[in-house]
Amino acid sequence: MVGTYRETATKILNEFRAQGLIELKCGCVVLVNEPGLRALSEQGEGVAEPPS
Questions:
Q1: Cα separation of 34 and 16, whole Å?
Q2: How many domains does the chain have?
Q3: Which of helix, strand or coil describes residue 22?
Q4: In a domain? residue 38
Q5: Taking CA 50 as the corner, what is the angle to CA 36 and CA 29, rounded to the nearest 5 degrees?
Q6: For residue 19, is it within any domain?
């Protein structure tokens, strides 16, 4: 489970799809460009730090 609004998750997933990182099929998320997703996650942009 993720603590986010559905609209926010949909927006982010659509951005990833537009960048060619994922595909959305039958309610599933298909990783198309795993190295690209990994590079994006390592940038840390938009990633919230867990509370300490």
A1: 11
A2: 1
A3: strand
A4: yes
A5: 35
A6: yes
Burial of 46 (0-12, 13-18, 19+ CB in 10 A): exposed
Over the stretch 1-52, which tens digit does the pLDDT of each residue have? Answer: 678 898 999 999 999 999 999 999 998 999 999 999 999 888 875 555 545 5
Residue 11: domain span: 6-43
51 part of a folded domain: no
- Asked if residue 18 belongs to a domain, the reply is yes
The confidence score (pLDDT) of residue 7 equals 92
What is the pLDDT at residue 52? 53
**CA torsion through residues 21, 2, 45, 18, sign:** positive
Which residue bears the tokens 């938009």? 46
Rounded CA-CA distance 1/44 in Å is 20
